[in-house]
Amino acid sequence: MAQNKPNRPVPGMGLANTLRFVWTDKVMEEWGRETFGRNILMGCLKIEVKDVLCLQGNPMESAYDVTFHKEEKHLEIMKKVKAMEGTRPLCHYQVTSLARNNFRVVTVNMYNPHVKDEEVRAFLGRYVDNVSSARYLRDSLGFWNGRRGFQVLLREDPKGIGGYLHPPAMFSLGADRGTLYYARQPPFCRRCMAYGHILASCSSRKCRFCGSGKHEAKDCDEPKACHGCGSSAHLWRDCPARQGSYASAAGGRAGDGGRRGREGPDDCNGTGEKTAREEEVIKEAARGEGQREEKVGTGGEEGKEADGGEGVEKKGMVTAEREEGTAAGAEGEVATGQEGEAERG
């Protein structure tokens, strides 16, 4: 028999159009799947099979999760559950919605495709929660179109439109510009960078950097804030949020989005120049290469001298042998001539 747990685990991103029915009766044994479907769903709530996408049992929570095809049906059943709360047989279950109204899929378009996913996620983290990994959107031919999709949860903000804090639809990460959009996004003004109206109806001359109404952005002399974390202690090029992830470093920076020709934050000092340590390593490697070449050259000369000496000696020996052979032949001819003269005499 289940206990009524106050803090039940719910998926971080929620489950769209889903209601969870948790068994709370401590005396009766919990109902099986067929009994629950017949008595609660079809009998009490008058739900038809065609309206339900999935009915899943959750033994760990002593619950059933019911997912509907449409959001309208989910809201309708939730209202009916609240109206019938405490009546039999629904009184055996505690019903909660797993849907998150603040769940959004944010599509980000960076005009520089080499911007890292970690940098975009760091920027989104200023406004939203539970930012997922990026999903690259492709066209019908399979080419990436520069857009990346992120699953997020909007933060609650009583002063925000709809009760949520919304990330700016236009933004910059250093010199790289980007835009984003998502479902049910409020109108956004490109002049004052505020939600609620568009440029054509904007009457504000408020600075989008400091929020002052006394000057515009082009005349602002206030210290600039970091585009990534919002801190005024540093700019985007020195932001710690730009540091690559462990997976990216372990994979040989394979997750850098192809930013090979452009120096990244991990191998630069923030200005695009190599660090002094790397220059020293390069010089040491060059010196070692030069020493190896010098050794190879010296060894070659010694080899040539040795080969030359041996060749001279061999040549001298061959010449001596030839001279000895010639002398022996001459002596043989003289001896033969003397023997011939003796026989004639």
TrEMBL record:
Residues 326-339 have a biased composition (Low complexity). It comes from the Eukaryota. One of its GO terms (molecular function) is RNA binding. Residues 256-265, 274-325 have a biased composition (Basic and acidic residues). One of its GO terms (biological process) is activation of innate immune response. Signal peptide: none annotated. Residues 246-345 are annotated as: Disordered. Keywords: Metal-binding, Zinc, Zinc-finger. Gene3D superfamilies: Zinc finger, CCHC-type (4.10.60.10). Pfam families: RBD_ZCCHC3_1st (PF23057), RBD_ZCCHC3_2nd (PF23058). Residues 226-240 form the CCHC-type domain. InterPro entries: RBD_ZCCHC3_1st (IPR057810), RBD_ZCCHC3_2nd (IPR057811), ZCCHC3 (IPR042509), Znf_CCHC (IPR001878), Znf_CCHC_sf (IPR036875). This is CCHC-type domain-containing protein. The lineage of its organism: Eukaryota, Metazoa, Chordata, Craniata, Vertebrata.
